[in-house]
Design brief:
The complex is a heterodimer of chains A (868) and B (359). Chain A is α+β, with helices and mostly antiparallel strands. Chain A is built from 25 helices and 40 strands. Chain B is built from 14 helices and 9 strands. The chains are: A alpha+beta (868), B alpha+beta (359).
Chain lengths: 868, 359
């Protein structure tokens, strides 16, 4: 909310501090100050001029020459002007040569300096300014006409209040009482050192509705003709309807306009401005109906009602929009017909206009929740609803009427309050709380004396009575709708004292050792290893579109739906990460040729209860550069390292090909979502939860173990599962995504994917890894190269070989695979490196050779290998 | 006489040992050997003249000369070895840029989250997590934000569609109210985990809760519909506002830098009273006001406060015996401040040209 310092000065006398310092104090003690600024820092050299004469321009039909007097001592100036809303005798703003004009309406809208110009051979000695040029309104059509009483020669800064300061404070929903100058003044007096509330502050609290009735005049409309009948008193604790006569619609005095403009409100006419002014000053929203329009609509009678809307009712509001009303809208009716949305906006049909001479002034109090709900349902927010939604003090209604009448009397001296109804059904009662000053000091770690606490709260309007030592009964002022308990009083004292005054003290708590969450451990290890291997972490949205789900071949109906998505693209909670990762990959392929990324996030699956089962998964995708086999093996190697970095013992996991669909249940559901999807897009993918024989831990054996699987080569998708040694559930899936699937995401490259349940991985991780000592005796390494059929699965070959009990063999590695014309179609040449070693002595060459012969034998017999 | 010779030995030593490092070739090395150790070298002539010296001096000078002879020999041998192992002509352009391995980057927000976790666990906090799909009860009601509370506007919410909602309409208002409590939504903050943990445990409680949260708001440079939050909660007997201030200040000095300046100012959250917002002095302008801090000189860091007694009561704690503080920080915004980018959407656009900078 914006407050004007000039306006505040009506209610509080501030010490000599700069506006910026005041803003700082507000931030420290009330709420954050968004900005502190002069109303108009730019205008310079613009004065009030009186139009003495208007002559046509000798050389231009559309231009005029205007002679203006800009003060007694100055010679009148001759100014060329294109606007035609001016007349002799008017007071207008005149920018002198060298003046700074706040807005360049023809250019960039920034301040500019006026230079002497010759327009069609006539030198213009200045410029008459439009409202827009002075930044007081958007109007560019004519010149700003100032009230006749404005003194020629005065500085426009003074006339239009440009030197006033405006502080914009970011009030939260708990302080509706401070949405007014009076409210802010009260707070300032409590924490600005040396600030003092003025007499006018106390006057502004009073309502003199009774006194007003003293000058009630006999009127064309009698009191009895206007009735108020509230149907929903619980939603409208108070309704004041005041019949005010003797109104002449006209512009407000400049000082009212200036103040309204300063806080960002547009002056309209004396009545509308007065209602806005009162709202900004005391916080009470008001509304004025035109009496003759009410009478016309009500068939000659006026009965104001307050009730909930009915099905099918409509109302055109002041902003010109016809609105169909939901059944939960509180309405103001006249003779049963809706005339306003209670607490939100009036209706167009009863709006005041230039011909209005008498008004029905509404000063009411509406239920915060009902106002909020209706305002949201209608998508209509106003300054009034902004206040009612948060809850305001019903006593403000009569204060508001009193202030409005005083303001209107400035422009309408014959103003007459002809009748007044005050339906104050549910009187607001004062809340009383207990405050223990000892507790206050304990919670805040302060050592305030009781007298200091009492003084602070009293300045804020609280009424404290001492019950016994350090215990007070506190009467809460009715405008403080946010104070419900002792903790609220403690906060008041804390902020008035200032949070800076509270010391620093670390809590003393037992040194409980904490173990990292298993899943967090998994995340960190994964993130560390994958980033060092060239994968970048992304974070994609948890929701996706129906199209994206459909692209993956999944059923949108099996997903959780967002009832109020921001867009159709974000309507479903995702059950997998694959769609997002492929989307992100496609997006990035527009700029780069290789994309390697991963994400760790939750997916949402149907569980047993109403709520989704949230499972954290890790998804990784990498595009294939040229050689799918090499890239696949590289990713597979990364996944292997990933598992070892997490403390999986080498023998405790393995890849197994997904071969039979009926074995899918051995995968956790979060993987099944993706596995079944791959199954459908590929032809032969199977999972077997079989355990692979534990392999001795040497490097040769390790790679042999990993080779005990199958991997897919274009165009078929192959998937592999990783199974922990307890064998029950798979942990992850590794595969090449079907090109038909990647094509749906507009990806023309092959994509390798690893997808794992981080939760399952967290359960299966083994923290202690068995490490073997380096062998004591030397090893003998021997190679063998052979040609075999393309159908030979090398991983299977290796694991079979390792199980074949070759004496002294401790490792078998594939170190080369190649194909060429010499070898022939459907065949490949494989080079194996075998390692032989004895555990208890140095192996002889003879022994090694004998073992190597057995390997060759094995290869020939089992795999029809042609040894090269 | 002997002091002259000792001085000479020292001079030869300085000269010879300095020069050994400058020898570039094996032939140079040979020449050097002759010059300093050869038959006609000065050192050799000193050794030869030893016999003319008196007994005492002979021992002294002899020892110095012999030591130097050995030193030079060793230095030359060492040099010889290194010259032999060096390629005769070295062509290495050391100015060429290094060939870098391809390294990926962790997401900037998770980097900040990790630093949160490290700092707070070092202070005895435990990291706990909770569901992203919450009920109305945990997300709002238990946090002192009843239905219709004006403060609910602070959190625009995504709701999940539930078939039961339609059935509920037909049922009694009591059942409907029950259904309302159970209404599923995407959590708007990590605060519900406070309640879930307090329901399960007794004080003292010291937790932080990192996680994704969701707000139903249109996205712009400073708003994302999905973002991360870290919640913190400490409850025990006698916890005060001074504890809140000190814990946050020490922790955030570690996270953001020892020299950062913080300020605590009043604010409003329904689940804390008193409530505070914590700002950090803008590092770009050092408080004078700039574009980054919108002229304020401060950047918003987090919201905090003393746990509202109503929240403690809801979980069955006695606010007369225990008190606590809570805070909620946005690691996304902290990442923006730390790395100096201004559009929060960059974090979720997943443009690798942006993300790969965070290695």
């Amino acid at each position: 909310m914006k407050v004007s310092l000039d306006w505040l000065s009506d209610f509080v006398t501030l010490p000599r501090i700069s506006p910026a310092e005041l803003g700082e104090l507000i931030t420290q003690h009330l709420i954050e100050t968004e900005s502190v600024a002069k109303v108009n820092p730019h205008a310079k050299g613009i004065v009030v001029g009186e139009i003495l004469e208007i002559r046509p321009h000798p050389n231009a039909d559309k231009l005029q020459l205007v002679l203006v007097a800009v003060g007694n001592k100055e010679e009148p100036l001759e100014i060329v002007c294109g606007a035609h809303n001016i007349a002799k005798g008017q007071k207008v703003p005149v920018a002198l040569i060298g003046a700074t004009v706040p807005v360049d309406v023809k250019g960039d809208g920034k301040p500019w300096v006026l230079k002497e110009t010759v327009i069609r051979n006539v030198t213009s000695q200045g410029m008459l300014c439009s409202p827009k040029e002075l930044a007081v309104a958007d109007d560019t059509d004519g010149i700003l006409i100032l009230p006749p009483e404005t003194k020629a020669g005065s500085d426009i800064r003074e006339v239009l209040g440009f030197d006033d300061w405006v502080i914009d404070i970011d009030l939260k929903s708990n302080r509706p009482d401070a949405l007014s100058h009076v409210g802010v003044a009260r707070d300032l007096a409590a924490f600005v050192p040396g600030a003092k509330l003025t007499k006018r502050f106390y006057l502004a609290q009073s309502s003199k509705l009774k006194a007003q009735s003293d000058f009630l005049q006999p009127s064309a409309l009698s009191l009895q003709q206007i009735k108020v009948a509230i149907d929903a008193p619980e939603l409208c604790p108070r309704y004041i309807a005041a019949l005010v006569e003797g109104i002449t619609i006209q512009p407000s005095p400049l000082w009212i306009q200036n103040r309204l403009r300063a806080i960002g409100m547009r002056p309209i006419n004396n009545v509308v401005d007065a209602t806005n002014y009162v709202m900004a000053e005391v916080g009470q929203p008001l509304h004025a109906f035109d009496i003759k329009k009410l009478l016309r609509g009500g068939g000659g009678a006026i009965t104001i009602g307050v009730r909930m809307s009915r099905e099918g009712e409509r109302l055109t509001t002041l902003d010109g929009k016809e609105r169909s009303l939901s059944p939960e809208t509180l309405l103001i009716t006249n003779e049963g017909i809706p005339v306003a949305l209670a607490g939100i906006m009036g209706g167009a049909a009863t709006e005041i206009d230039r011909s209005t001479t008498s008004i029905l002034l509404e000063a009411a109090n509406f239920d915060p929740m009902v106002t909020a709900k209706a305002s949201r349902a209608l998508g209509l927010r106003s300054e009034a609803s902004h206040r009612f939604e948060k809850g305001i003090d019903p006593t403000g209604a009569s204060i508001g009427v009193t202030r409005l009448l005083a303001l209107l009397r400035e422009t309408c001296p014959t103003l007459n309050l002809a009748a007044i109804h005050d339906e104050y059904v549910t009187r607001v009662s004062q809340v009383h709380l207990t405050l223990d000053s000892g507790r206050l000091n304990r919670v805040l770690a302060l050592k305030l004396r009781d007298s200091e606490i009492v003084a602070m709260l009293t300045r804020l309007g609280f009424d404290l009575k001492k019950k016994r030592a350090h215990l007070y009964e506190v009467g809460v002022p009715t405008f403080r709708v946010d104070i419900h308990g002792e903790e609220d009083l403690i906060e008041e004292v804390a902020r008035i004292q200032g949070y800076d005054e509270i010391s620093l003290e670390l809590p003393r708590l037992p040194a409980v050792p904490r173990r990292m969450l298993p899943i967090e451990r998994m995340r960190r290890l994964s993130r560390h290893l994958l980033t060092t291997q060239g994968f970048t972490e992304v974070a994609t949205y948890a929701y996706e579109s129906e199209e994206s789900i459909a692209k993956l071949g999944l059923n949108p109906d099996e997903h959780f739906r967002i009832a109020n998505p921001l867009s159709r693209e974000q309507a479903y909670l995702r059950s997998e990460l694959l769609g997002s990762l492929l989307g992100t990959t496609a997006e990035n392929l527009r700029y780069t040729s290789e994309v390697a990324l991963f994400e760790i996030a939750r997916v949402f699956l149907r569980g047993e209860g109403r709520a989704p089962r949230e499972v954290e998964v890790l998804g990784l995708t990498a595009t294939v550069a040229t050689d799918i086999e090499a890239d696949f093996l590289r990713v597979k190697g990364v996944v292997e390292s990933l598992h070892e970095s997490r403390g999986f013992e080498k023998s405790s996991y393995t890849f197994v090909p997904l071969r039979e669909e009926e074995r899918l249940p051995h995968l956790p559901e979060e993987l099944r979502v993706v596995a079944s999807l791959l199954l459908r897009t590929a032809s032969a993918l199977i999972v077997t939860p079989d355990r692979v024989n534990p392999v001795r831990s040497s490097h040769g054996a390790l790679s042999a173990m990993f080779a005990a699987d199958e991997f897919g080569i274009h165009p078929r998708i192959k998937t592999q599962g990783i199974l922990p040694s307890n064998g029950v559930k798979g942990v992850g899936l590794l595969g090449v995504i079907d090109p038909r699937l990647t094509a749906r995401f507009d990806i023309s490259k092959q994509v390798i994917c690893y997808y794992e349940s981080l939760e399952e991985a967290g359960k299966s991780g083994i923290i202690t890894v068995k490490i073997s000592e380096p062998p004591r005796y030397p090893e003998i390494v021997m190679d063998v190269a052979f040609v075999t059929g393309e159908e030979t699965e090398l991983g299977t070959l290796l694991s079979t070989l390792l199980r074949h009990s070759i004496p002294f063999m401790v490792g078998a590695d594939i170190f080369d695979v190649f194909r060429d014309e010499k070898i022939g179609q459907g065949k490949k040449s494989v080079a194996l490196r075998l390692t032989y070693r004895a555990a208890d002595r140095t192996l002889t060459d003879e022994e090694a050779k004998r073992s190597h012969e057995k390997v060759i034998q094995f290869l020939k017999e089992r795999y029809q290998a042609e040894i090269r | 006489m002997s002091s002259d010779q000792k001085k000479r030995i020292a001079e030869i030593r300085a000269q010879a040992l300095d020069l050994t490092d400058t020898i570039k070739t094996l032939s140079e090395l040979g020449e050097f050997r002759v010059r300093f150790l050869g038959r006609k070298s000065e050192l050799t002539s000193i050794l030869r003249s030893l016999k003319d010296l008196p007994e005492e001096e002979r021992r002294e000078v002899g020892k110095a000369a012999n030591t130097l002879y050995r030193e030079i020999e060793e230095a030359l041998d060492f040099r010889e070895k290194s010259l032999e192992s060096m390629p005769s002509e070295l062509t290495l352009d050391v100015t060429r840029p290094g060939i870098r391995p391809r390294i990926g980057a962790a997401h900037p927000t998770t980097k900040i989250l990790e630093s949160f976790e490290e700092v707070f666990t070092s202070m005895g906090f435990e990291v706990v997590e909770g569901p992203e799909v919450e009920t109305d009860y945990y997300n709002f009601e238990a946090l002192n934000i009843p239905k219709g509370h004006p403060a609910r506007d602070m959190w625009d919410t995504f709701y999940l569609e539930s078939p039961e909602a339609i059935q509920d309409k037909a049922q009694s208002s009591e059942l409907r109210a029950q259904g309302e409590k159970e209404r599923l939504l995407l959590r708007t903050h990590t605060s519900p985990v406070q309640v879930r943990v307090m329901e399960q445990r007794k004080p003292p409680i010291r937790i932080i809760v990192p996680g994704r949260v969701y707000r139903h708001e249109n996205e712009d440079a400073t708003h994302s519909a999905m973002f991360y939050q870290v919640e913190g909660l400490l409850v025990d007997e006698g916890i005060t506002f001074a504890h809140l201030k000190a814990t946050l200040m020490y922790a955030f000095r570690l996270i953001l830098g020892e020299d950062r300046i913080f300020r605590f100012r009043p604010s409003f959250f329904p689940f804390t009273e008193p409530s505070a917002e914590v700002d950090v002095r803008c590092e770009y302008c050092e408080g004078t006001g700039c574009e980054t801090c919108r002229g304020k000189g401060w950047l918003e860091l987090l919201g905090a406060g003393m746990v509202h007694p109503n929240v403690l009561k809801k979980v069955g704690y006695d606010p007369d015996t225990v008190s606590g503080f809570a805070f909620g920080a946005g690691p996304d915004r902290i990442a923006m401040k730390k790395y100096g980018f201004t559009d929060i959407r960059m974090l979720y656009k997943n443009d690798l040209r942006f993300l790969s900078q965070f290695i």
